[in-house]
User: What shape does this take?
Amino acid sequence: MIGATVPFHPMIVDKVLLEMADTPARAVIEQTQARDRESAEIRFGEWFVWWRENFRHWTDPLRTEFNHFCVTDDAAFVGDWLSRFEPAVFADFLIRVVHAHVIERALGFRRGDEPKLITVLFGLDAYQPNKAMGLEEMTQELWRRFADQHLIETDHSELWCNFEVDCNVPIAQP
Assistant: This one.
């Protein structure tokens, strides 16, 4: 629990990320249609340019949703500092924390009568070690979903994410 009255839930991050993925999906499809191309011709780089825009401003949906839960003095202090991070660095941190929490709960580390989490994006792989994904892995997952939905043939080997952020200097410059 981050706030005093409202518990922060991984399904909220799941929902916000899916909503964020809708924006680049709509934009790249509109752009493709305007150029008289089929959606199956869209490539990762075209989609990624729009996806990356989610992390270029201070009002990104992840940051906004997170700040709703920082209501106590301690949480507000932490929330204030976290919101100073570059948006992509903040998103990477939050995605890793939430996925680690989902993995922990799936492995049976739940408190009391907490129900098992069911999320769309934060899954577990029975055939590989469970490692919490970050922003880059989440980006690749959202691209795979988009490509599958629009029948885009891809082997996913061309995926390279550059959010143009120096992670050695995670605090954003005003």
